[in-house]
Amino acid sequence: MKKLIALIALLPLLLGCTKLDVNPLSEGSSENWYSDETEITLALNDLYRTYLWDFEINYNTERMSDNWTQRQAIDAFPAGSVNSEWSRSEDLWLSTYKGITRANTILNSLDNATGKVAEAKIKQLAAEASLMRAVFYARLVFYYGDVPFYTGYLNIDDAFELGRTDKEVVLQQVYKDFDAAIESLPVSYGSNELGRATKGAALAFKARAALYMGDWVIARDAAKACMDLQVYSLHPNYGEYFLSKTRNSPETVFALPRSFELGSSWGAKNFYTRTPGGSAVAQPSWELFCAYPCTDGLPIDESPLFNPREPFKNRDPRCAMTIVEFGTEHLGVIYNPNPYATKVLNMETEKMVANKDTRSVDTYASYNGLALKKGVDEDWSDNNETDFDIRIMRYADVLLMYAEAQIELNEIDASVLDAINAVRARAYGVDVTNTTAYPALTATSQEQLRKELRNERRIEFAWENRRFDDLLRWRLAEKALIRPIYGILDPNDLKQRVVDQNLWFYSQAPEIDENWLPDFSALHNAGTVKVLVERNFDKERQYLFPIPSKEIIINKNLKQNPNY
């Protein structure tokens, strides 16, 4: 806890205050800080800075899930090689406690504003800090279990003695903080405050925290209350929602805004295709690609509509909105990873150019043939930067959280089907009542709906940092993260082993199991696909993260999680 201790001791003197996602404007260091609305608001703004949310943005948890392929490399988590010195755990621990300490400082300093700021405004500002503290503590107990817990100031001696508090005790405070935020936060702000947390955000985050801990009634009620606010709705076009040009959508419940004008953007080169100038370091996995059902609602190994020669045809529309369809225009050129296609058309010049998106031409082209489309637009290839908003919570998640909680409670009614079908119908671009235009759910069995709901979450939130958490809480990591990552044969091997050039991707649908997880072993045994890298998730320890070793060393009261 050395870093945590230093932070606790020094934070009141070093409390930087910023606008959202821009450089600090001022620092509050005097004992009279937090004495007016401006000072409190500036301090609160730091809780919206991306460093406190970094674990949940920039695809960081996707890297640890089965949605991700990165050539023949693998993240330490699915590789099973994490230990108590794992940097990702250390960074998460430190940044989250930074946020908690800052929120505590604000909440414990608001008396300075008494008589100078209206009481209602103080309650609102306290509600923002309470919400953030709840979010951060909920994050800690999900990943670490029992954690050090404090709501006031700590001196160095106290910090050295601080052990781990039972997560159920921490959760009591989490729910209390969420309720305080829900009571005092407004439903909406004026147009100048679109980035700030609202009552709906507090309800949605409470639902997520409860869902992750299996508190189904709390999750259901919070999600339903958010729905009942009637201020959110699904964006009409799924693919358009994730583009940088889409701002302030009614689907967005909580987001961190980015802007080129404010100097807040993100390096995107690793995540788009090579012919337009990207690096194509990482791709959606074959497992994710297989998760998208056919338009009849059936998995690809059961549906008569699936054709391995045209694997995007007759698929849930989110498939081609998330993954670039072969033979279609993408960032000004035709995307075609087929090893026989050494030239592709540049749509702007109308000339054929070298196809750097096939490994026949470029060794580092996608190893599985897939490329990310979700959120990718022309601004990515303009200067290798993008400034799309970081969406932490959106309304589709609220709907599916409500449905999941009801399913787990086995209180299945029309509202459950309506919630899931609303999300699915939006993907097809049709009204939810037009049940012949999309595969509307009609099942009422808990087992079947659980299966459908879980896969619906996967394809709806692909590459949005939701899949990893779902694998942990559903205890599916021990199944999904022990299977190898597969990809296309090397070009020379492919041309020798696969006679039909139209079956270069893979020759048949893999078997899809009861968890909607694909098994490529039959294709591998036939020699038509290759193993890129093995996974080795350790179910005996990895459902909880390790407490950073640096914290354990200096605090005898801080005990490590099992088997680390």
Automatic annotation (TrEMBL):
It holds the Pfam family SusD-like_3. Residues 1-21 form the signal peptide. Coiled coil: none annotated. GO terms for cellular component: cell outer membrane. It is found in: Cell outer membrane. Residues 67-210 form the SusD-like N-terminal domain. InterPro entries: SusD-like_N, SusD_RagB_dom, TPR-like_helical_dom_sf. Its main location: membrane. Residues 272-564 form the RagB/SusD domain. Keywords: Cell outer membrane, Membrane, Signal. Belongs to the SusD family. This is RagB/SusD family nutrient uptake outer membrane protein. It comes from Pontibacter actiniarum. The lineage of its organism: Bacteria, Pseudomonadati, Bacteroidota, Cytophagia, Cytophagales.
